[in-house]
Each structure stands twice: as C-alpha cells, then as structure tokens.
Amino acid sequence: MTEQVMAAIDGSQFSEAVCDSAAWASQALGVPLTFLHVNDNHTAPEEQDLSGNLSLGAREHLMEELSRLDEERARVAQEQGRLMLQAAKERALEDGVAEAATRQRNGTLVETLEELQSEIRLLVLGKRGEGVDQASEHLGSNLERVIRTLHRPILMVPPAFTRPEKVMIAFDGSKTTRKGVEMLARSPLFEGVTVHVVIVGADLADNRSHLDWALETLRGAGHDAEGAIRPGEVEGTLHAYQEEQGIDMLVMGAYGHSRIRHLLVGSTTTDMLRRTRIPLLLLR
Predict the structure, then answer these.
(1) CB neighbour burial string for 200-222, b if at least 16 within 10 angstroms, e if fewer
(2) I need a labelling partner for 218 at 20 to 30 A (CA). Which of 43, 179, 208, 233 fits?
C-alpha cells in the first residue's frame, strides 16, 4: 500500500485546519491524501436497567424501543461521518489537491490508526476532538494515546492553518534529535522554509559543536538555517524564542530520555503540547 498523508477528522473546530494542513502536506510531499473518520462505538451511553417493576410485556417493549434508538443513533452517526468526509474532500480539492480518498471506520481512533499505520507517511489531527472543551488547554485523550502508540510522524494542528515559513526544531545534539534534523533536511515538506535550530542549555563547546553540525546539515540540503543556544527552562525558553522569531511551526522528536524528548513520552501531558498555539510536528 502506498504511504499517504492521513487526516483524522471529527466534528471539532479543528477539522477545517486539519483539512487545509493535510492538503498542504500532501502536495508538498507528493503523496496521496486520505481523510479518515472513526465512529467510536466505545463512547455510547452506559446501559441502564430502565425496566424497574414493569410487567414482562412492557419490559420487552421498552428493550425493543431502546434497541431501535441505538440503531438509529448509529445510523445518524454514520451519515454525519459520511457528510464530514465529503465536505473534507471538497475542501481539499479547492485547496489544490488533485484527488482525495475517504475512509469511514467503526471502533476507536487509536486502534484504527494502529491498524492503518503501515499506510501512513504523515498523520494530521487536531489538538482536541469534539468531545473536549474547546476553551480549555487540555489535550484530547485520543491525541495523547495516538502519540504514545504510533511510530509515524504526527502533525498536530491548532484551529487555523497557515503555510509555514519559519520552522523551529528543538535540538540537544543526541543521536535521535540528529536523526530529526536529518529527516527535516531531506523532507520536501520544508522546501523554501527557514529552519531555526534551538538548543536549550549552556553556551559550551559541546553545544556549539552540536549546533554547527545541525546548521551545516540543513544548509547542505539547501535550507536557509539559523541557530541559537539559550539557557533556561525548556518549555519557557522554546516558547519565548518562538514568539521572538515569529516561528509558525515547531518540530520535535518524540522519543528517548533527554530533557527535551522526555516532554513527549512522559506519563503526563506536557506544557509544550498544551500551550503551543502553532502546528507541532512530532518526528518518530
């Protein structure tokens, strides 16, 4: 199966940005685009014993009516999903995508994506789903589980899409973050984009050597690259640099045990994921 950009959509305020981001990524990478909607059959209301002291006939009638309502809810959910997928496809075509496929599945999002993982070049999804308070800073529980489960690059998007012009990669010189720089350097996704490499730590010889390597790698691949070494606490320092430089996409590696990489693999939701207001690309 050809690897593709896969965009997971639902009824949240992030769906339009997911569509636009996926359309951009599909065209930049030169790979097919597929929109995915999953009817989560694990979120139905818990069954309750509503029969009480009803007579046998009344109890059977009630159970039949409840069953009919469940079937109707499933049918409506299926139709809503179909309409969302059609709207997403039409939006992608307007964004310049030559062709977009759609898929509708029943189950959970995490299990479905894990099953489809071999087909995914890049997964695009919103910061929160339709079941989460959109005014909160909480991440959708699906996003956290997807990050821990999938071994594919994941682009998490805010409510509005902007084509990136300045990208920042958090770097610590380790083998895995060097792999991230190399992936970014050769990816057509960032052609023509200025790449900022930021090390959070002391301005020592080792960090300077790591930064020089990253900049040489990126510039050798044809990128306009800038770098900085900043002291301080990781999340606050990266956010400050982002604001100062007008960065419009953050790139991080989601593996390992360093201070930066631990942000994305710990057991709790991190400030970096919660607070970011720009797209965040997690490299695996």
Answers:
(1) bbeeeeebeebbeebbebbeebe
(2) 233
